Amino acid sequence: KAITELNTMIDRTIASVLPSGSVSALSYGNRVVGFVTAVFVISVTTAAFPQMSRLSAMKNTRKLKATFARSVGLMSLMVLPISAGVILFAPQIVALLFERGAFTAYDTQRTAEVVSFYSIGLIFFSIKEVALNLFYAIEDTVTPTVNSVLAILINVCLNFILIEPMAHKGLALATTISGGITLVMLLLILRKRIGPLGLGRIFASLVKMAAATAGMCLAAYPLYQLLHSKMESVLLPFLLAAFTGALVYGILNILLRTREMGILVVGLLERFTPS
To answer: pTM of this prediction?
Structure first.
């Protein structure tokens, strides 16, 4: 957490050389993406960590890797559609959350750009959190620390490369690319440390989730445009489009037989069905 805050502080310092409002755009964009991370990512990692720690203590590497793969899959099942939805509706989300008083439509546009580039990396940040928890479960605190420092260094280098052609958008993209690179590093180290992680099966699920996400977007955005053209409100069309998109996403994953959707449905049925 301290390293993440340091990274954010460095980004804001570099953004201070950009036109007025760039620092605010980064700050508000961070808040939007941070909310998604806090609600969905932390909930999955918090639930998975005790089980991974217990399996690590028992030296049950097979189940440890299976728990990791399941956690990554369930995380991706939630984060992929959210990332796409946030990118698709970034201007509407930012306007609903912040556009009032001194926060103008121009500020909304710039913040939405930052949110979109951060959201591209949500899947990287999410899987990385699970991977970091696996390192902590096997009692390795050095690798996560080194990886986090590398993430800062890569991010700073990319900031200076991308800031001129892309301004504030470049700073957000640098964070996303840095997250992707350091995630790959972590996965390679994990594979060397405990063997194959089942990434082939996870990738197969990701392809199905991506197809379902595409279907969700094709249903949600035209519906929003249609509803918004008939009413002045932004909130109601957005909520109806989001609900429809979520429904389409769930149905498509069931039809595609996405493994993680089956795990989720079975888990919900067991929890809410009287024994």
So the answer is: 0.93
* Cβ atoms of residues 134 and 52 within 8 Å: yes
Cα 221 to Cα 81: distance, rounded to the nearest angstrom = 13
Contacts of 13 (CB under 8 A, 6+ apart): none
Residue 63 DSSP SS3: helix
Query: What are the tens digits of pLDDT across the range 201-239?
Result: 999 999 999 999 999 999 999 999 999 999 888 999 999
The end-to-end CA distance of the chain, in Å, is 41
Burial label, 5 (beta-carbon count in 10 A; 0-12, 13-18, 19+) = exposed
Residue 82: partners with Cβ closer than 8 Å, 6 or more residues away: 36, 40, 122
Residues 6+ away with beta carbon under 8 Å from 163: 14, 17, 18, 170, 171
Name 254's Cβ contacts closer than 8 Å, sequence gap at least 6: 261, 265
Tell the burial category of 196 from Cβ atoms under 10 Å away from its Cβ (0-12, 13-18, 19+).
Answer: exposed
